[in-house]
From TrEMBL:
Domain called HTH marR-type: residue spans: 23-158
Tree of life domain: Bacteria
SMART domains to which the protein is assigned, alphabetical: HTH_MARR
One Pfam family cited in the UniProt record for this chain: MarR_2
Name of the featured protein: MarR family transcriptional regulator
InterPro entries hit by this protein: HTH_MarR-typ, MarR/SlyA-like, WH-like_DNA-bd_sf, WH_DNA-bd_sf
Organism from which the protein derives: Streptomyces bambusae
Length: 165
């Protein structure tokens, strides 16, 4: 079965036989798949009235377990955004009634961000929608092939995830 990347690679091999274009065979497919996944994610989130960034914050809190709260610093670490961006996001989610700010009992100057029941419901529903979209993308692969692919991708991404700063 031929895909667009096969045609792209063949064209580059014809036009630039002096270059080894083999990395394109893997990474162009990863890039194209990422675009399809981004589209599927946006569909799943919009069906539940969420933007991708809202889903990221809400699910960070949901994964924290009861009482579904984290400090803004912990949210920064999980979502990889700046402090100013996180403050803006918390403000917007608070206005929507999806999170609330509470005083941190361990730090008089600190706050905790807690998921509201509505935020928890929206996060749970959007996650179920996302998983349905992702299952559809992976449906062409057997469970063994999905496991193999996950292991290969982990091998490629782990060095980036384990770099300080």
């Amino acid at each position: 079965m031929e895909d667009e990347v096969d045609r792209l690679v063949a064209a580059w091999r014809r036009e630039r036989p002096d270059l080894d274009v083999e990395p394109l065979e893997v990474l162009s497919r990863v890039s194209r798949l990422a675009r399809h996944l981004d589209r599927a994610r946006r569909i799943a989130f919009s069906e539940h009235g969420l933007e991708p960034w809202e889903f990221d914050v809400l699910t960070s809190l949901r994964r924290a377990g009861a009482p579904y709260q984290l400090s803004p610093g912990q949210l920064l670490t999980q979502t990889l955004v700046t402090s100013g961006t996180m403050t803006n996001r918390i403000d917007r989610l608070t206005k929507k009634g999806l999170v609330e700010r509470l005083p941190d009992p361990n730090d008089r100057r600190g706050v905790l961000v807690r998921l509201t029941p509505e935020g928890r419901d929206r996060a749970d529903q959007a996650l179920a929608g996302l998983l349905a979209q992702e299952r559809a993308i992976l449906a062409q692969l057997s469970p063994d092939r999905r496991s193999d692919l996950a292991a290969l991708l982990r091998q490629l991404t782990a060095p980036f995830d384990n770099v300080p700063g």
